[in-house]
Amino acid sequence: MSERSNTPPVPDVPATDVLEHDLEHEQVVFANDPASGLRAIIAIHSTALGPSLGGTRFHPYASTAAALADVLALSRGMSYKAAVTGLDLGGGKAVIIGDPATQKTEPLLRAYGRFVESLAGRYITACDVGTFSPDMDIVARESTHVTGRTEAHGGAGDSSVLTAYGVFCGLRAAAESVWGDADPAAVLSGRTVGVAGVGKVGRHLVGHLVDAGADVVVTDVFPDALDRIRDEHPEVRVAESTEAMVASQLDVYAPCALGGALTDTVVRELSARIVCGAANNQLAHPGVEKLVEDRGIVYAPDYVVNAGGLVQVADELEGFSFERARQRAAQIYDTTRTVLERAKSDGVPTATAADRMAEQRMLEVGRMRGIWLR
């Protein structure tokens, strides 16, 4: 199934509001190739820790301003994700404006590859919503700064495998912090976990949860995704809607689809003790993390737990070893525990604790390195 089921609706934001809100990026490049129909934006947030790495999102944005708002937020998140995960990489992201189902072509992808190459390695691209490993193989025909390629071309293949595994590791850490008297090997057994979005990542996460003995309920806007889950895991329940699932009795809520999933309304309705999912930018607005904390909900910050995909494609830069990448993704368990412990000791929301850890590493290491150049 297409990862388009994990595509969040992006608000149509005035360009002036976007620029006034976010002027911290090192470099933002607009790419336009009329011959192929390419319209893209590449945003490099930081190279303090190394070259920026982040996927290419192919999405039919309502406007250029909406695309710009998305790529700025996503690239910033990649900087924090790489930093808190301990990688020597910066944060970048790219968006291609258009419908991948009808507009994705070899000429367009190759034109995009030439723009990536023009940045001389300051940005390394990979897959994201609307793009897949075979697409990266085409981009790589024009640029050497590509990861997330197919296994046939020496790449890591589908990064959703370790993304889901990392989320599961982070969820175990969060569960142990909440139900600490439980057997660590069975801490999720019998717990009700609601997974919103069972595309590439959510599907793999459901498999881990079922194996751990959890009672899993799922939602997705695409019937094909739900049918596949029913075929693979007949014991999994399907809710009528995400809203109905959120309002039901849950122990864990795992947003794996839409960005901005944690709105004030959702947080007030949630019965879950833990929020831990694969979606990016789950907090709908600044300040909602305080409401989460006030309600006694343990939030495992999204960019901490969903870093397994980044770990996987980053490992490809060394010559990919799945087992090595899996061992590195398993460390998300320890990182999540550290974030939760620091939040408790500092008396701050977990999102703030994670930000502080990432910013501290970018500052301390970046002070030695400065802006990355080839």
From TrEMBL:
Residues 157-370 form the Glutamate/phenylalanine/leucine/valine/L-tryptophan dehydrogenase C-terminal domain. Pfam families: ELFV_dehydrog (PF00208), ELFV_dehydrog_N (PF02812). The keyword Oxidoreductase applies. The keyword Isomerase does not apply. InterPro entries: Aminoacid_DH-like_N_sf, Glu/Leu/Phe/Val/Trp_DH, Glu/Leu/Phe/Val/Trp_DH_C, Glu/Leu/Phe/Val/Trp_DH_dimer, Glu/Leu/Phe/Val_DH_AS, Glu/Phe/Leu/Val/Trp_DH_bac/arc, NAD(P)-bd_dom_sf. Keywords: NAD, Oxidoreductase. PANTHER family: LEUCINE DEHYDROGENASE, VALINE DEHYDROGENASE. Belongs to the Glu/Leu/Phe/Val dehydrogenases family. This is Glu/Leu/Phe/Val dehydrogenase dimerization domain-containing protein.
